[in-house]
């Protein structure tokens, strides 16, 4: 600590700071692209509803409690989101073979179609961005793949997972999907 009470910060290399700032700027641009893609969905869709669809596409059918935990909301909020998605025909509740008292939430064909539409909108916007790179995408893809891998190794769990728009679970680089917690009753 310094005499002023501020925490001493080790100076980073100028190139590292510039790269980190560029990534922050890029993340804002990417968030904007994502928000516009969700807004352009063929049905009225909120960002939390889109997140639920992506979680189910990534991990397969899920209990509402697991969705609530991953969203960081209470179970009644997650249940209301799921109810709206059920009402739109984007997900359905099915019985859980491990616990007949519980239900799982899974994507419908329409839910997969909406995810595909959002994905295609995002992809088109990103292709426009890549087309604007003066030297083209030849060196861009390998650099972004390295950044993604580095972030996945040092980032929070699930950061490297990529949902498939056909509804089947998948993850990056051939890694198995994130393990799901046991489906038994949870006490809190």
From TrEMBL:
Keywords: DNA-binding, Transcription, Transcription regulation. Residues 16-153 form the HTH marR-type domain. Residues 177-188 have a biased composition (Basic residues). The keyword DNA-binding applies. Residues 151-188 are annotated as: Disordered. The keyword ATP-binding does not apply. InterPro entries: ArsR-like_HTH, HTH_MarR-typ, MarR/SlyA-like, Tscrpt_reg_MarR-type_CS, WH-like_DNA-bd_sf, WH_DNA-bd_sf. CDD domains: HTH_ARSR (cd00090). This is MarR family transcriptional regulator. It comes from Nocardioides pinisoli.
């Amino acid at each position: 600590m310094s005499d002023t009470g501020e925490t001493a910060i080790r100076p980073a290399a100028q190139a590292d700071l510039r790269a980190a700032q560029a990534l922050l700027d890029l993340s804002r641009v990417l968030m904007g692209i994502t928000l516009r893609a969700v807004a352009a969905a063929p049905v009225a869709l909120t960002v939390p509803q889109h997140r639920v669809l992506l979680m189910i596409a990534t991990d397969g059918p899920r209990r509402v409690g697991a969705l609530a935990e991953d969203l960081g909301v209470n179970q009644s909020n997650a249940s209301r989101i799921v109810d709206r998605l059920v009402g739109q025909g984007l997900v359905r509740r099915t019985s859980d073979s491990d616990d007949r008292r519980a239900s799982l939430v899974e994507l419908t064909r329409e839910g997969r179609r909406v995810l595909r539409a959002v994905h295609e909108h995002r992809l088109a916007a990103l292709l426009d961005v890549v087309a604007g790179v003066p030297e083209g995408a030849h060196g861009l893809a390998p650099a972004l793949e390295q950044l993604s891998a580095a972030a996945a190794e040092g980032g929070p769990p699930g950061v490297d997972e990529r949902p498939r728009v056909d509804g089947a679970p998948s993850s990056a680089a051939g890694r198995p999907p994130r393990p799901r917690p046991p489906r038994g009753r949870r006490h809190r």
